Amino acid sequence: MTGSFTACLSYPFSRSRLDPDPRYAQLRRTEPVCRVQLPYGPPAWLVTSYHLTRSVFGDTRFSRAATVGRDNPRECPVEFGQVAESVLCMDPPAHTRIRQLAGRAFTARRVEQLRPRARQIAAALIDGMVAAGPPADLAEHFSFAFPAIVICELLGIPDAERHAFRRWTDAIVSTTASTPGQVQETYLQLAGYLAGLFAQRRAAPGDDLLTWLVQARDDADRLTETELLFLAMALLVGGYETTARQITNMAYVLLTHGPQLCQLQARPELLPGAVEEMLRFIVFGSAVNPRIATADVTVGRVVVRAGEPVLCSHSSANRDEQVFPRAAELDFARRPNPHLAFGYGPHYCLGAPLARMELQVALGTILDRLPGLRMAVPEDQLAWHTGSMMRGLAAFPVAW
Fold first, then answer.
1. Among 74, 86, 312, CA closest to 178
2. pLDDT band at 174 (very low <50, low <70, confident <90, very high)
3. 366 close to 116: Cβ distance less than 8 angstroms
4. Buried b (16+ CB within 10 A) or exposed e, 204-217
5. What is the pLDDT of residues 339-396, one digit of tens each?
6. Smaller CB count within 10 Å for the chain: N or C?
7. Which pLDDT belongs to residue 309?
8. Is 141 a domain residue?
């Protein structure tokens, strides 16, 4: 079977809260590499099974760098950050150089050193909610504030300025509100803001990650100025938006799965495993970040021709029954749990240790400090994000 299909499925598939579209399961069984057409760009191959997804992520013949300067399959009219200097659009060895440099800030040991401070931040936010009394919007008052404060402190950004970059990150993950002019304006604002921070660190170095990256640029010449800019953008956006939405998503999953919530309340030691299982279980988004085949490559029964784009669905791979028995069930004791929520291969999420720690601290604090947590409105009245690449609740009113 070769990459010559003419029929394409319209993609992304339907979105219902945090649940997978039934077509993913059907495709895994019958056609795990299929042709799809996104709203913009050329057709692409969509990979839905676990083992084939890992094979694509780990195969250097599928290139992120090759997406630069071409029309790519996508959900929104304009692409963000498709430039050669972005770490998200690099292949080894350039990607390896920058990843090793930035990765030193996100080792498991360094992240564990941040855990006590993260607990203080989470507790202070919950204190504010308790003082104001129920009901409260968990998304607004906790989920978005918590990772924002953590990444601000890590990068050395004043907490008072975190509301500004929330507007920029919302624009970046939007699929509907980004005209070419708005894209350019968002980038100019964010780039100008970060350039100002770089200038501040050069004039008055601090004990933070931005200072360290600026010094790596200036003293050791390990980054170009443009690489520094796009790395800072990736850390700021990636260290905030995804974690913020997943905190709310996981709280919603717990409140809609009573037996698992009771299990976790009775056995708090299950929390790390519960976070991993919810990362596997939650359908957070559709397949994004295409890779371009640089040679003819056989993927399953399909020959992907050189130059063709390939998309892999993390969420579908995480529901693959061949790897995860009872994949549709939420099982906090699941072992092993080799989910792909953070990707695989060279582009495995750089901030995965930080995200795991933040999710554990956030959920642990919520469960400990808000006894009797419950939804403050009927479930069918909850408002879900539309026009975004990431699924989640626009607001989550809770009481306790």
1. 74
2. low
3. no
4. eeeebbbbbbbebb
5. 999 999 999 998 999 999 999 999 999 999 999 999 999 999 999 988 777 899 999 9
6. N
7. 98
8. yes
Q: With beta carbons less than 8 A apart as the criterion, state whether 33 and 297 touch.
A: no
pLDDT digits (tens, 9 = 90+) for 290-348: 999 999 999 999 999 999 999 999 999 999 999 999 999 999 999 999 999 999 999 99
> What are the angstrom distances between the C-alpha of 60 and each of 57, 291, 345?
8, 10, 9
pTM recorded for the entire structure: 0.92
Domain count within the chain: 1
Reading the block at residue 62, the tokens are: 């599928």
Residue (of 293, 292, 230) closest to 94 by Cα position:
230
User: How many other CB atoms are there within 10 angstroms of residue 202's CB atom?
Assistant: 13
Angle of CA points 69, 171, 18, to nearest 5°: 100
How many distinct helices (H) and strands (E) make up the chain? 15, 11
Residue keyed to tokens 């061949």: 322
Q: Determine, yes or no, domain membership for 68.
A: yes
3-class state of residue 169 by DSSP: helix
Residue range of the domain that includes 221: 9-399
The CATH number given to whatever domain includes residue 283 is 1.10.630.10
Q: Is residue 3 part of a domain?
A: no
Give burial (CB, 10 Å; 0-12/13-18/19+) of 113: exposed
- Distance CA(80)–CA(74), nearest Å, equals 11
